[in-house]
Design brief:
It contains 5 helices and 3 strands; from the N terminus they run βββααααα. The chain is α+β, with helices and mostly antiparallel strands.
């Protein structure tokens, strides 16, 4: 008898990838999407990757994303990496500013614009960087 836990019994400690598979029938305009599956992979403490969870519907996937702590941690890590680089930070802000404007939420767009780099804000406002 050993003290080691079998690989399949090791808990997943981080999400490693997300894969959407769509299946259907027909081609072109006659194509229909009849099946969809989301598979989320994770790694355990030994860096062994395996299926963490699978969802057959978007509703299942949305409910899982809203409640799973590893998903929230993965999203937080992704945004931390994006926002730590000034260029990608500005890009993320610009995408969200555009989304706010498209929804008619001018106040959110203004609030987000305040966090742009001075160079990007000047460019957005049509001013030359000084």
């Amino acid at each position: 008898m050993t003290d080691e836990t079998p690989a399949e019994d090791q808990p997943i400690v981080a999400i490693s990838q997300l894969c959407w598979q769509h299946g259907g029938s027909g081609r072109g305009k006659r194509a229909t999407s009849s099946t969809s599956r989301c598979t989320v992979y994770g790694v355990d403490a030994n860096s062994v990757e395996r299926v963490y969870v699978e969802h057959e519907t978007d509703e299942e996937h949305q409910a899982w994303m809203a409640s799973d702590p590893l998903w929230r941690e993965a999203q937080r890590a992704l945004f931390d990496r994006l926002l730590s680089n000034p260029a990608t930070r500005d890009m993320v802000l610009l995408i969200n500013i555009q989304g706010a404007l498209e929804k008619g939420d001018d106040q959110t767009a203004i609030d987000l614009a305040k966090h742009l780099s001075p160079e990007r804000l000047s460019k957005l406002l049509g001013r030359d960087a000084e």
